[in-house]
Specification:
156 residues; mainly alpha; Four Helix Bundle (Hemerythrin (Met), subunit A); 4 helices; 71% helix
Length: 156
């Protein structure tokens, strides 16, 4: 069986988890735009102060940091720093043929950790709470990478 087909339940698990994470990354970008429009603030660049269809009344204070917008921007940046490693490690993990149960626990565990991290960030939980969910996701990615290295080194 080819490892990278939907007939492989490990790859199907990866495909589901990766698709959810793509939606998370893209959705967070749209959340930032929504918050910028709702608050009429939090713009990022001086050229954003040009008159346009949406920003009909640009003002210098629109460039000031707005925590409502910036929190979403930080969440997006955090996703962009963490989820791509899952994409890479997860695909390599699929290629070395772990058990379906192991793949499901790890990959869906990563998705759950990232979603819980987002909820913790959005609801202004402490760094310790966010770091707990980050750590779970990070350790899962590290485990998958190490598992891949060991499998390749041992010739399996």
């Amino acid at each position: 069986m080819n490892a990278l087909t939907m007939e492989n339940p490990v790859f199907a698990t990866y495909a589901i988890a990766a698709a959810i994470m793509v939606l998370k990354i893209m959705g967070q970008g749209w959340m930032t735009v929504y918050r910028m429009m709702r608050s009429d603030s939090g713009l990022a660049s001086p050229e954003d102060l040009r008159v346009g269809l949406i920003n009909k009344n640009p003002r210098a204070e629109q460039l000031e940091v707005n925590d409502y917008v910036d929190r979403s921007r930080r969440m997006h940046r955090n996703d962009l720093e963490n989820i791509p490693a899952f994409f890479a490690a997860g695909l390599l993990f699929v290629a070395v043929g772990p058990s379906v149960l192991q793949a499901q626990i790890l990959m869906y565990g990563f998705v759950a950790a990232r979603l819980l991290h987002a909820i913790a960030y959005a609801t202004k939980q402490s760094h310790e709470v966010r770091a707990t969910f980050y750590s779970v996701g990070s350790l899962i990615v590290i485990y998958m990478a190490l598992y891949t290295l060991v499998a390749v080194a041992s010739g399996s």
